[in-house]
Hints:
The chain contains three helices and eight strands. The chain has 166 residues and is α+β, with helices and mostly antiparallel strands. The protein folds into two domains: 18-47; 56-164, Sandwich (Immunoglobulin-like). The strands form two sheets. It has a four-stranded antiparallel β-sheet with strand order 1-2-6-5, with no helix packed on it. Strands 4-3-7-8 form a four-stranded antiparallel β-sheet, with no helix packed on it. It starts with 18 loop residues before the first helix and ends with a strand. The model has no long low-confidence stretch (mean pLDDT 86).
Amino acid sequence: MTAMTDTPDQDGPGFKINGWHVLAGMVAFFAIIIGVNIVFITVALDTFPGEDTRRSYVQGLAYNEVLEERAAQAALGWSASANLTADRVLVEVRDSDGAPVRSLRLTGTLRHPANMQLDRDLTFTEVRSGVYAAGVADLPEGRWELNAEAEGDAPFAVEADLRWRR
């Protein structure tokens, strides 16, 4: 039979993890997680602050007026087509007989669906009979939403989804 002898632990001069090492590791881990979350939140709010339409609650209250304006526009029988080129937005407006509608005062907005900072206000000028153009410079590629209205007696609005590619 062999005898068992007590031998002391042989840890040697190596590294030993103590309680404060564990605490420091946990604090560092959560500090990194919180830091990354702050960066993500900041970037998300800079590109899309949350409210897509300004004063959306007030616009919702006036929705019956919007329906009346759309009914008046449908009674006109006008139609519009829109196109996006390298340096301008083109809108062609025709009446119910297919004739060009002249002398409109069109204004509008070219909206980027993902980044409100890229939105552009537009003022159109008539370049040909019934064709209106508004200049846009340095337009990034992608999808755009056009919202334009005629000022004056004619209750006419244009909404179009446009794509721009170089």
